[in-house]
Design brief:
Elements: E1 2-8, E2 14-20, H1 24-33, E3 37-43, H2 50-56, H3 61-76, H4 81-91, H5 95-109, H6 114-119, H7 127-139, H8 142-198, H9 205-239, H10 242-254, H11 258-279, H12 284-294, H13 298-312, H14 317-322, H15 329-341, H16 344-400
Antiparallel strand pairs: 1-2, 1-3
Helix pairs in contact: 3-4, 3-8, 4-5, 7-8, 8-9, 8-11, 8-16, 9-10, 9-16, 10-11, 11-12, 11-16, 12-13, 15-16
């Protein structure tokens, strides 16, 4: 439960904010432990407006990137953690993020560590982010850690956005095409086919096929709608189980053209995550476990979880990776070289850079291939449809003359 409060601290300064606690009594006790004299406290109402919460109160990756760079700069200037988060809470434009930062500042004042304070907001700061900060606390390099995080999130945001944006245009064109074709078959062709059939002239085979498809969609089109709804429900249900996620992700990875793109994207993410965490001092097994949670593919999550268990049992990282065909041989061999030379972090950074470049090239190739294929395919489909209707109409007009 979330409680908003107004209080006065031990220095006589007015304080306002919110505290998360199982009950009101525990919330009051928590505030009193901070040295606050409570003026008022009440439970906050849960926001019912889902649209507003989802679209107008959203913390984006860019917000976290900027925040991480600001924290790094403040720490480098030797500004205390409490003052840093208080300043950022007061000057952040995103109201939801400002609220979270204010809560973190309150926790810091109560003696909670930075990583512990961030861990209370899992929707904003991932397990990866929290563990990176915890490693920075242990090594005394928090400013460098936040800089690493900002650079890492910036890279991931750029590569994910490029991949997503490359697929939006062809998806939009294909969906629009099917909508237009559906309207043609359901609305336009039935009216023209009635005129063609009433003319009494011989109808070409390809025209009869188009008319038959039109009649079927008009009379039984609801079957397709029901079918797609059932497929969507099945996919959603399947996605809710680990086995189903693995099955769907394997389909995605084996799909023509885009499968190779996704594979390189996940490999880039794995190498980049491991490099960032190992460089910050996170233990290798913990780094693999956290990477498994943020890789965003059930297939590679299973691979990394199994690899983490192998490393725990005494195997090297390269030997653990070698057991899985999803990880290419070049990655395994490079990791092995890194282990033998004691430069695993540097090797992983090289691999991350290599796979990011591969993703960029794959996206450019995919876009360059999709556009001409799509234009030719759509042109042929529209040409067949128009020819099958216009040729009989032209013959009817010629016979009337």
């Amino acid at each position: 439960m979330l409680f908003s409060y107004k209080a006065v601290d031990d220095k006589g300064i007015n304080r306002e904010g919110s505290i998360d606690a199982p009950g009101k009594d525990l919330a009051i006790s928590g505030l009193q432990r901070r040295g606050y004299v409570i003026l008022s406290i009440k439970e906050e109402q849960v926001e019912r407006n889902i649209f507003k919460r989802s679209f107008f109160e959203k913390i984006s990756t860019r917000d976290i990137v900027i925040l991480s760079r600001q924290i790094s700069t403040l720490f480098e200037a030797q500004v205390s953690a409490l003052k840093s988060f208080s300043m950022l809470a007061a000057n952040t434009e995103n109201k939801l993020l400002a609220k979270k930062l204010a809560q973190i500042a309150d926790d810091l004042q109560a003696g909670v560590s930075i990583s512990g304070s961030l861990a209370k907001h899992p929707t904003v700061f991932s397990d990866f982010y929290v563990n990176m900060v915890r490693a920075g606390e242990e090594t005394g390099k928090l400013n460098e850690t936040f800089l690493y995080l900002a650079d890492y999130l910036d890279r991931q945001y750029a590569i994910t956005s490029k991949t997503r944006n490359a697929l939006i245009y062809p998806a939009f064109v294909i969906v629009t095409f099917f909508i237009v074709m559906g309207l043609m078959f359901v609305v336009v062709i039935p009216k023209l086919s009635a005129m063609i059939e009433d003319s009494g002239q011989a109808i070409p085979l390809y025209t009869r096929v188009v008319i038959a498809v039109s009649h079927f969609l008009v009379n039984y089109g609801f079957i397709f709608i029901i079918f797609f709804i059932l497929v969507g429900a099945w996919a959603w249900r399947l996605r809710s189980t680990p086995q189903g996620k693995t099955y769907l992700d394997r389909i995605k990875l084996s799909a023509p053209a885009v499968g190779n793109l996704y594979k390189k994207l996940y490999l880039s993410r794995i190498a980049d995550n491991l490099d960032t965490m190992l460089t910050s001092g996170v233990q290798i097994v913990r780094a693999i476990d956290i990477t498994a949670e943020v890789v965003d593919s059930q297939v590679y999550k299973n691979v990394l979880k199994d690899s983490a268990e192998s490393v725990r049992s005494g195997l090297s990282l390269s030997d653990a990776f070698e057991k899985h065909e999803e990880l290419p041989n070049i990655l395994v061999q490079m990791v092995k070289v890194g282990e033998e030379t004691g430069a695993l972090g540097k090797i992983l950074k090289t691999l991350a850079t290599f796979y990011r470049r591969e993703v960029d090239d794959a996206v450019d190739t995919l876009v360059g291939l999709i556009e001409p294929v799509m234009i030719v395919g759509l042109g042929i489909a529209v040409g067949i449809l128009l020819t099958s209707i216009l040729v009989p109409i032209y013959n009817i007009a010629g016979s009337i003359q």
